[in-house]
Write a structure and sequence with these properties.
Blueprint: H1 16-23, H2 30-38, H3 47-58, H4 61-66, H5 69-72, H6 80-101, H7 110-121, E1 128-134, E2 140-148, H8 158-168, E3 172-178, H9 188-204, E4 207-214, E5 225-227
Parallel strand pairs: 3-4
Antiparallel strand pairs: 1-2, 1-3, 4-5
Helix pairs in contact: 2-3
């Protein structure tokens, strides 16, 4: 039987925990930080070897965070407990990001809204339509998930959008959804849905402040989101 290779069996210069103690966490490579979460290796592989295989397979931390437990366990040396540890770490990171924003952040501009939604939306591999519910002072009440899948007038019905707003006593709402392709440019369906919901909000006396579409930043488009209000689509 091949013995389990532990990090402590490696030379000091290759032991991530000792390097963290000596140099600080920011000095470590991503593979080393992941190896610390994995704790031990297995079947002749150190935790660092397994970490490198994980990052090679998934490419980025974002892709690794999106991966299911079953996907993570496809890597040699990753069992149930290691997969759970990784999933827990990414979930804690997202929750910490939310805490940093505060429990009731002021959401009076597109940047603040996109920043609030960014961490959760980057993990979605299909379109998710959400409504940000706000009080009279433009502070967050909660974010409500409305639908999942291709965005169109059937999946995004005013009844579903405003039911949650009415029950929460929201004074205003911001529409939001992600584009898994990474390009946040609005489609014709996005624009039509926005205008339909603006009209419905006017009838119900609940203002639709904006529609934020989230994607990914690129060299050509350094901003990872668009605001349909800023683009001039907020007329009916």
């Amino acid at each position: 039987m091949t013995p389990t290779l532990r990090i402590k069996d490696l030379p000091d210069a290759e032991r991530p925990r000792e390097r963290l103690l000596a140099l600080g966490a920011d000095a470590l490579l991503t593979a080393e930080l992941v190896a610390i979460l994995l704790r031990t290796g297995t079947k002749g592989l150190s935790a660092l070897d397994i970490s490198r295989q994980l990052l090679q397979k998934f490419g980025t931390l974002e892709n690794l965070a999106k991966a299911s437990l079953d996907d993570i366990r496809q890597i040699k040396g990753i069992g149930r407990d290691k997969a759970i540890a990784l999933k827990s770490a990414f979930t804690l990171a997202r929750r910490m990001a939310k805490e940093i924003h505060g429990s009731t952040p002021l959401l009076d501009n597109p940047e603040n809204i996109a920043d609030l939604l960014r961490e959760d939306n980057r993990l979605y591999d299909v379109e998710n339509f959400q409504v940000v519910l706000l009080n009279t002072r433009r502070r967050l009440i909660r974010v409500e998930q409305i639908s999942q899948g291709t965005l169109d007038t059937i999946l995004v019905h005013p009844r579903e959008v405003f039911r949650s707003a009415i029950s929460a006593g929201a004074a205003a709402i911001v529409l939001a959804h992600n584009h898994p392709s990474g390009d946040p440019t609005p489609s014709e369906a996005d624009i039509k849905v926005t205008r339909d919901l603006i009209r419905a909000g006017q009838l119900l006396k609940i203002e639709v402040l904006d529609h934020i579409i989230l994607g990914r930043a690129t060299e050509e488009k350094p901003r990872y989101f668009v605001s349909l209000r800023e683009l001039g689509y907020f007329y009916t």
